[in-house]
Amino acid sequence: MKSVHFNFGQRLSRRHLLRGAGVALGLPLLDAMRPAFGAAGGAANLGQAKRFVGVTLSLGLHNPNLVPKKAGRDYEPSPYLRSLQDIRDQFTVISGSSHPDVSGGHTAEGSILSAAPHSPAVTRPKTVSIDQLLAKHLGHETRFPSLVLNTDGETSPSYTENGSMIPASSDPMKLFTQLFVDDKPAVQKTQAERLRSGRSVMDVIAADTRSLQRQVGREDRDRLDAWFTSIRETERRLEANEAWIHEPKPKVASKGPKEADRNNEPEVMSAFLEIMALALQTDSTRFITLHVTGNGVNAIDGVDESYHSLSHHGRDDEKLDQLARVEESVVREWGEFLRKLQAVKDENGTLLDDTQVLLTSNLGNASSHDNRNMPVLFGGGGYRHGQHLAFDQKQNYPLPNLYLSAIQRAGLELDRFATSSGTMKGLSI
């Protein structure tokens, strides 16, 4: 193999690639590259809830319409919760919680599921998101270790252990085909050949890798080691999935979702949730995230402004009225997803008993870009739901505690996740 060596000199360009045998691999951000960007800115498991779904919203939910005024089990439903009263005992409302050391408004989206500390001044490396942590340890049991979805785009709050974002799928029709339509024999053959094509990508670029590691500092070498490790882990997961290539995909009665109106965000969300329920029911995957980014909403009755504009309402009554129409529909679709899972019986009761389902956002108040008091609905998983856990609105309770509870409920014996201080108070099996 003929390798290509670079003379990097004192500084590295982010555009440099490692190359070999037709492979070109872009590098992660290293300290040696920073001048190219300007100055650097400063619970016990019972073996049941083996699935996790995270639905995340980029534009939050208006807390006065979501959070009940009273805590406990006899709370009066808020406007957004009225449509969910038939499944009231299947979810918990959580208020007064947020991720410690996370600020920055919209830019904190990447921390929704990882709780990685973030601020406008200093963005520390992303840590693994809860869905990808679960997928790493438990995702090998299904055809797809995880599904990462977005209603309109490739961004996601799903991150690997070394801080790499997982690009999302944003086409419901393609997703349905990927899950439930068998590939033609020629496609299966090509997929198998790619997986068996020889050496690891890291072996192919080995010479350049060694050369590069000699030219960077210790911290950069550590970053490169972590990056190389993540690539090898990805390759191993692909190799493990080779056995699935020739296995028939599950057959479902549905012919797939109809084309959703991109001017109706809840309708797009509904199309994804329908497929997600089928994916869980057929055990095609057990870990799914759906990021709802805010498509057009003008197709909703009584709404004539953009979702983003309405979320920045400035307490304007007309905007708040239109925003309520949008957000109430979003919450209703989430509730319908719970109903779908509840209707499926399995060995532990229902599919909902086996599945922890989260709805949240990085924005507690989108109008003021406030990351405190995150909206949180948490359903399924075999917990004793039907309550409003109300924590301090000024001194927020750490939401990573909920994530740690979910991780332990899925069967991982961890005692800490991100900035957690323990499992969530008041949440019991």
Task: Please explain how this structure is put together.
The protein has helices at residues 63-66, 130-138, 172-180, 185-195, 201-204, 206-213, 218-240, 265-281, 307-311, 317-342, 400-409, and strands spanning 17-20, 23-26, 51-57, 91-95, 97-98, 147-150, 287-292, 345-346, 349-350, 355-361, 376-380, 387-390, 397-398. The longest helix has 26 residues, at 317-342. It is globular, with a radius of gyration of 23 Å. The chain contains 11 helices and 13 strands. The strands form 4 sheets. Strands 6-7-3-10-11-4-12 form a 7-stranded mixed β-sheet, sandwiched between helices. Strands 1-2 form a two-stranded antiparallel sheet. A two-stranded parallel ribbon has the order 5-13. With 429 residues, it is of the alpha/beta class. Helix content is 29%, strand content 13%. Helix 3 (172-180) packs parallel to helix 8 and helix 8 runs parallel beside helix 10. The N and C termini lie far apart (57 Å).
